[in-house]
Amino acid sequence: MTPAQSDIATVKSAERTVRILEALAASPTRLTLAELQERLGYPRSSLHALVRTLREVKWVEADEGGSAFGVGPHALLAGTAYLDRDPALPHALDALEDLRAEVGYTVHFARRDEAYVLYLASRESRDSIRAISRVGRRLPAHITALGQALLAELTTEEVDAVLPRALATFTEETITDRAELHAELAEVRDRGWALESEQGTVGIACISAPVPYRIPATDAISCSMPAELASAVEVDRVSRAVVAHTTALATTLRRHGIR
């Protein structure tokens, strides 16, 4: 193998390693090698070797039988380091605390990652029964108010370039028609905040606004509530609060020189 071929093989192995970790992180259950191969399409021999190496360095762990795999404890170290070093996050946490105190609902802070939103912080409502935090989860942007608020920061052409050709369906209310999504994003641009009801989760409505300290905005804050409570009056109250707090957060971040 020539040096150039060796470099190409190394890059390919590195990319495959990352894709394996992403696939395991995205799955709600552990995956077998056969399931990983089906999702990623990698040769079984190289897949087995990469998973074995990842287990040895504790980025991947296996079940008791050693046949199904999930992300390991060392994956948490990288994620925690990202959060610890984000200069915007401490200020965002303060904003979430204040917003939750005002509206009484669960609130989130997220960042757009291409066609997805990555949850960086959450504060549950006082009476929430949710046992698992969304922090670290990545969801398709088109199904969330957070994502729609951030997609609306882009032009129509930019949105089409970012989103996959086929939009995934999560519920009966999920917008999967591209023209319909563009119409929704146009409304978001006009009013300055996004509203989705049961598009991502049955029974939940969500209101979100971007944090305009970057152009286009990369971060947003949202407020989730039971869909049955999302009356016109309540949506008006909560949307005003969300916009006020995202605007205040952007001012704080700019004042501290955070871009």
Q: What's the total helix number? A: 9
Specify the helix fraction band: 40-55%
Count the beta strands.
9
Adjacency order of strands in the biggest sheet? 6-5-4-9-8-7
Could you report the average pLDDT, rounded to the nearest whole number? 91
Low-pLDDT stretches: none
Portion in strands:
15-25%
Ordered list of secondary-structure elements with their pairings:
Elements: H1 3-26, E1 31-32, H2 33-40, H3 44-56, E2 60-62, E3 68-71, H4 73-84, H5 89-103, E4 106-113, E5 116-123, E6 138-140, H6 145-151, H7 156-162, H8 178-191, E7 194-197, E8 204-210, E9 219-226, H9 232-255
Keywords:
single chain; 259 residues; alpha+beta; 6-stranded antiparallel sheet; 9 helices; 9 strands; 48% helix; globular
Task: Please sum up the structure shown.
By secondary structure, this protein is an alpha+beta fold. The chain has nine helices and nine strands.
Describe the structure.
The mean pLDDT is 91. This protein starts with a helix and ends with a helix. The protein has 9 helices and 9 strands. Strands 6-5-4-9-8-7 form a 6-stranded antiparallel beta sheet, sandwiched between helices. Strands 1-3-2 form a 3-stranded antiparallel beta sheet. By secondary structure, the protein is α+β, with helices and mostly antiparallel strands. The chain is globular, with a radius of gyration of 20 Å.
